Every structure is written in C-alpha cells, then in structure tokens.
Amino acid sequence: MRAARFGWSVLSWVVLLLLVAVLALGVIGPRLLGGQAWTVLTGSMNPRYPPGTLVVTRPVAPAELGVGDVITYQLESGRPAVVTHRIVAVGTNARGETVFTTRGDANEAADPRPVQVGQVRGELAYAVPVLGRVNALLTPDHRVWVVAAGAVSLVGYALRMFVGVAQDRRLARRRRAAATDATAAGPPTPSAPGPVLAPVPALEEVTP
Predict the structure, then answer these.
(1) DSSP string, 14-79
(2) pLDDT per position as a tens digit, 12-54
(3) Which domain holds residue 72?
(4) From CA 101, how far away is CA 45, in angstroms rounded?
(5) Does residue 85 contact residue 45 with C-beta atoms inside 8 Å?
(6) 28 Cβ neighbours under 8 A, 6+ residues apart
(7) Residue 98 belongs to some domain of the structure
(8) How many domains does the chain have?
(9) What is the C-alpha to C-alpha distance for residues 42 and 132, in angstroms, rounded to an integer?
(10) pLDDT class for 175, splitting at 50, 70, 90?
(11) Which has more confidence, 163 or 111?
C-alpha cells in the first residue's frame, strides 16, 4: 500500500513538473522576455531545430546582431509569414541601410533576398523540441485558457498535497499517542486463581 502511494506521489510530481515546464517555456517565458513563440515547420534548420521545435525570440537592436545569430524575420516586410534562419553575413544596401544575409543550417545556399532591419521580429532566445507542435494547435485565446487552467491545477494540487501531509501527520501523532498509552499502562494484571474444590464422595445406596 505504501509503495503504491509513493509511486503515485512520484508520478504526480513528474506530471506537475512537466506542466510547469510547458507553461514556463511556452507561455510565460515569451511574455517575460517581451518576445514571441514560433513553431518550426520545415527542416531547413535541421538537425539543431527540427520541425516541431518551439523557438522563442526576444527583441534585439539591429546593431547587436552578427554572423552566427539566429533570427526570426518576415519573408516580406509587413506580411505575417516568417522564417527562422541563421545570419551568415552582415552588409549594407544601396541606401546605406544594414541588411542581413541568412541561411538555413540544412541549406547549401544562402537565402536569395537580404533581410532588412524592419523585417526582423527577434533573435532566438531559446528553443524546445516537440513543444512547438502543441503551440501550433493553440490560438492566443487558447493559450490564455491554458495558463488559467494550469494555474488552477497547480493551486489545487498544492492544496491537495498540503491536506494529505496534514492528515498523515495527524494519523502519525495518534498512533504514537496510542503506543505511549499502551506502554504506560504496563502489561495486563493476571487474574487470581479460583478456589480448588475437593471432589464430593458418592453416596452408597443402603437396602433396609
């Protein structure tokens, strides 16, 4: 029974920690960084960032970017479609503006068009494998509900663990008190032996 309870407790903690990790990395982390979470859909960044990877970006000043940095940028300025590739060169265009040449880690050739500063959505802060598949299924409204449900679950689980520990402590105190009372009372007093009765002789029948 104790082994089963211990196993269930360990499993519950593992699930709880996984939930905390998902919330922290996929929802809370991007908000704290002031960035966004994206899902890698293609294999252009294999093997380090395979499809399904969640990438979280943070705002960055263009002057801080250099060769080797991974950025998420708009394919066309002002359009929602984005791609996450690595900077392989930094230069200037005909107007003297800074531009970045990018390439996917799995691609042999650089991307055909240079990336302008206004297209950059952020620099890669961290990435989490597989979690991007979950992120792709959630709309912004869904993410709000996930955060709320996760917070309620964490509070509920914490209260359940607190009540369980309190109950176990009360039960342990009762058992210790019962054992102490039994020790103080001492062994049971043996009862006094009853009187020993002599056998009554049988009466002989006398014939007149």
Answers:
(1) HHHHHHHHHHIIIIIHHHHHT-EEEE--SSTTTTTS-TT-EEEEE---GGG--TT-EEEEESSTT-
(2) 667 666 666 666 777 677 888 888 889 899 999 999 999 999 9
(3) 36-133
(4) 15
(5) yes
(6) 147
(7) yes
(8) 1
(9) 12
(10) confident
(11) 111
In a domain, 169, yes or no: no
Q: What is the DSSP letter of 118?
A: G
Matching residue, tokens 């966004």: 36
In a domain, 140, yes or no: no
Residue 132, C-beta contacts closer than 8 angstroms, at least 6 positions apart: 37, 38, 39, 40, 52, 53, 54, 55
Beta carbons within 8 Å of 44's beta carbon, 6+ residues apart: 83, 85, 104, 105, 106, 107
In a domain, 62, yes or no: yes
| Amino acid in position 82 | V
pLDDT of 49? 95
What pLDDT score does 201 carry?
Answer: 56
Q: What is the pLDDT of residues 77-129, one digit of tens each?
A: 888 899 999 999 999 999 999 999 999 999 999 999 999 999 999 999 999 88
CATH number at residue 45: 2.10.109.10
The rounded distance, in Å, linking the Cα atoms of 62 and 135 is 27
